[in-house]
Amino acid sequence: MKIIQLIQKPQLRGAEIFACQLSNHLLEKGIEVLVVSIFKGDSNLPFKGELLELNRPISKRFTDITGWKEFSKIVKSFKPDIIQANAADTLKFAVSSKFIFSWNTPIIFRNANKMGDFIDSKFKWALNKFYISKLDYVISVSKECEKDFIKTFQYPLEKIRTVYIGVEESEGHNKPDDLREIMEKGKLVTHIGSFVPEKNQSGLIDIFKQILGKNPDAQLLLIGKGKLENEMKQKVLSLNLQNNVHFLGYRNDVLDILYYSHAFVLPSFIEGLPAVILEAMYCETPVVAYNVGGIGEVVISDKTGWLVAKNDQDSFVKSLLEIMTEQPKIEEHISRAKLMVSQNFMNTIIADRFLDCYKYVSKQT
Fold first, then answer.
1. Which CATH architecture fits 177-344?
2. Does the N terminus or the C terminus of the chain have fewer Cβ atoms within 10 A?
3. 27-46: pLDDT as tens digits
4. Which CATH architecture has domain 2-166+346-364?
5. What angle do CA 97, 272, 190 make, to 5 degrees?
6. DSSP bridge pairs for 266
């Protein structure tokens, strides 16, 4: 079997990292995998096979005839059994190429978000409905996102399935040299996510300011990049938090950082089921998150983490302060979360589930 994994660009973002991790496990199973990126990126992705970079202009994402033609040539040359589109831009790109240049390979869309939360106009709905109507199958990241996809687009039940995201096995963790001084100052709170409105770093900074009232030596690490990064840096300066809040950009040592963190926090307004939550659990780091998207399917209050109602900053602060007290029950939460991830969410297991979907779609088309 041959698979093309289509990604947005080489960047250390969840969708791209998982697509590459999944592809590595497929390679180990004897599947031929080609990873193709659409736009220019600046990161080295963890893929052991061949990665083709089209470096198409992002400004032409809706009119890129040249890019769609170039991709059609790749498809006709590689002759894949399945093309998996990872994230919305890749869906538009793959469908446009297939629609205009008439190749026949089935397209599977990996839906990693609750798409209904992004549809705020009839035009957006109609445009997405068109692209989605051309798909052969959808693999959803969570049950909640699957229900939302079906409801939003009246999508056929028999053409969608939930396959959860997974994490990589790892042994031993090294404290990052460039962060040692920060880590020794006080308890470490870590957030990982792009600087976009739905990730709500602004709310997190407000939450962390309250944490400092009880834990003045606490340190907040913000890992990621995005259009709101400079705005968040200005907010940190205006609140005089620059000695406690640190902007780290993209990192290749996320698991090491999580392992040495006292808490992982995710106050997002919109989510699917981000791998970083499972990675934190695997690293035995307590998780506090808003109950959005599929997060509640793994973060279970009083069992595997601290699940907070969306926008309830007071409860978020209370949960985070509870973690910092290091009560015995916190260790119980951590142990249950680690066991859950180890038994159900490792990429070695997840890869087989994706492969089952590929085989099913291949037989249907």
1. 3-Layer(aba) Sandwich (3.40)
2. C
3. 999 999 999 999 999 889 99
4. 3-Layer(aba) Sandwich (3.40)
5. 120
6. 289
